[in-house]
Design a protein that fits this description.
Distance between the termini: 9 Å
CATH architecture of the largest domain: 2-Layer Sandwich
Radius of gyration: 18 Å
Number of strands: 11
Shape: globular
Oligomer: single chain
Structural class: alpha+beta
Length: about 290
């Protein structure tokens, strides 16, 4: 086997795990791909990433898989591509890390279970400095799709359910980027009790109430503009809130309400509309 391509889809936040350790995500149908190929030479990982992004995450992830498989020293080239906006809280790093881990594992014949692939991606994300909690909720949701609530400290799934496919997701994407590594964690911890209440709502199946409560709390803690959240809710969204640490705002709506929600969000940034995702990560051998 000379090359493998893996595809992993993105997610938006239901719960931000930084304040209380309980995270949650909803899969969406944006995606990241990683293509891994064996190369000749002295070994090591060569990363090709778009847009001048730091290749450290790709290298760390590929090396984590090689170490775990006992195959250090192989020469591998990994190329990534994605239509997930970077640095906006839409889980682009988790999707890329998952995709790289899956592509490299299958390329070298490492028969790790899917859950182990996710955990390798999480460890690599910590080592690369792109996450504070390990983002297990993000990595798990990107890999498996659906709605997932997780204990990020224990790396354990607390609730898993299919994402409702009769709804749409409108996402407001401001121009500026916010990288997780630059976040003031202490500010987020000030809203811990509110986020715990949001977690209780989510675990009781009240996903949209949890998403909105969490989103308002995170926006307040990070001094992000609450106006797009309120505008989306007033226009008929079932839920709205900050995704990750922002600045993207995600809103959930019925199809008949989506144009009103889109219009309400447009003053605050480019808006994309996508569908919830229930498909798990996939891979294929390239000819």
């Amino acid at each position: 086997m000379k090359a493998v391509r893996a595809r992993v889809r993105g997610a938006v936040s239901i719960l931000n795990a930084i304040p209380a350790g309980i995270g949650g995500g909803l899969g969406i149908d944006l995606y990241a791909e990683a293509e891994a190929r064996l190369i000749d030479g002295s070994g090591g990982v060569e990363a090709l990433v778009p847009g001048g992004e730091d290749p450290k995450l790709v290298v760390e992830t590929a090396e984590a898989v090689l170490r775990r498989a006992g195959r250090r020293g192989l020469g591998i080239r990994v190329e990534t591509r994605s239509n997930i906006p970077i640095g906006r809280g839409l889980k682009s790093s988790s999707a890329v890390s998952d995709a790289v881990a899956l592509a490299v594992a299958r390329l070298i014949g490492f028969e790790a279970a899917d859950e182990e692939v996710v955990k390798l991606a999480v460890e690599a994300s910590i080592n690369a400095g792109v996450t504070i909690t390990g983002a297990y909720d993000d990595a798990y949701t990107c890999f498996f799709g659906g709605v997932n609530i997780t204990d990020n400290h224990a790396r354990r799934v607390l609730l898993r359910m299919p994402a409702p496919e009769d709804l749409l997701v409108a996402i407001s994407i401001p121009e500026r980027r916010i990288y997780t590594r630059a976040i003031d964690v202490e500010e987020l911890r000030k809203v811990r009790e509110i986020c715990l209440k949001a977690a209780k709502l989510a675990l009781a199946g009240k996903i949209w109430q949890a998403m909105t409560l969490n989103g308002v709390a995170i926006a307040s803690a990070l001094d992000l503009d609450l106006k797009p959240i309120l505008a989306a809710l007033r226009s008929g969204a079932l839920a709205a809130g900050v995704s990750g640490t922002g600045p993207a705002i995600a809103a959930i709506a019925k199809p008949k309400e989506i144009e009103k929600v889109r219009s309400a969000l447009e003053p605050y940034g480019r808006v994309i509309v996508c569908r919830p995702n229930n498909r798990r990560a996939s891979w294929e051998v390239l000819g």
